[in-house]
Amino acid sequence: MITVSELHTPGVAHGFFTREGGFSQGIFSSLNCGLGSGDNIEIVDKNRAKVASALGVSLNHLVSGYQVHGTDVAVVTGPLETRPKVDGMVSKTKGLALGILTADCAPILFADAQAGVIGACHAGWKGALHGIYRATVEAMEALEAKRENIIAVVGPTISQKSYEVGPDFCKHFLELDPAHEKYFIPSVKENHYMFDLPNYLTDALMRMGLGKVVDLGLCTYLDEQRFFSYRRATHRGESDYGRLISAIGLA
Questions:
Q1: Which of 3, 120, 178, 227 gives 20 to 30 Å between its CA and that of 102?
Q2: Could you read off the pLDDT of 50-106 as tens digits, one per residue?
Q3: Domain 5-157+213-250 has CATH 3.60.140.10
Q4: What single-letter DSSP state applies at residue 110?
Q5: Cα 118–Cα 4–Cα 13 angle in degrees, nearest 5
Q6: Which residues have CB under 8 Å from 104's CB, separation 6+?
Q7: Residues paired with residue 245 on neighbouring β-strands, in sequence order
């Protein structure tokens, strides 16, 4: 797993896990943690148990949602019988870890160690556009976190070099704010552009006045050895793809 010095704070455990070190085979090789993938669910549970152990929690205390590219955030206080349809989660419960599943979208982990509050969100382009990161921070504040003490880290996501989009995609962002034009550069394909999702998110988080914002600068599409990628699988005509997990917990 990949860890970040800024999140190495007392009482907080975290990791941006790669695809390596698991039990899955074939296109899911090897640390596929996607409960919604076509992988064998027993093997997925073994992979998730390995992640939970690395974070110091039991398997049922590694919680993840049913992600729908929305802006809803759940306050998690313990193990869940069913996965809520949310793209953000926050908690102040010790012994619990929040896990975000991605395969090109951005996982963002948050912590206010002083308040003992953590958060995590899944930010694809829709979530980024509509502010899932903002909703997650606000939910943390409702648990008495302080914005100026929150550390946010943007994990492995698809980079601008690999994220080609069409003209209709750009309109969503430019209609919200013409200044968003800076996150698009022309593609080699006519009337297409390359979108910079990680920088869009990093800038948005910094404007919120958080204590620290970090972008790992790791591209899921280009680094096949370490990361799953939905877009790479699609380009190859593969039937499915594995999911990475990024998680944060309170010891």
A1: 178
A2: 999 999 999 999 999 999 999 999 999 999 999 999 999 999 999 999 999 999 999
A3: yes
A4: E
A5: 40
A6: 124, 157, 158, 163, 220, 221, 229, 230, 231
A7: 101
Tally the residues of the chain.
Answer: 251
What is the Cα–Cα distance from 145 to 147, expressed in whole angstroms? 6
Q: What is the pLDDT of residue 28?
A: 98
Measured CA to CA in angstroms, residue 26 lies from 17, 29, 222, 243 at distances of 19, 5, 19, 13
- Taken in order 122, 123, 125, 131, the sign of the CA dihedral is positive
Report residue 245: phi and psi, to 5°: -125, 135
Residue 251, pLDDT score: 87
- The burial of 75, by beta-carbon neighbours within 10 Å (0-12 exposed, 13-18 middle, 19 or more buried), is given as middle
**Residue ranges per domain, the chain?**
5-157+213-250
Question: Rounded CA gap, 51 and 142, in Å?
Answer: 28
Q: Please name every residue paired with 153 in a beta bridge, in sequence order, or none if there are none.
A: 109, 214
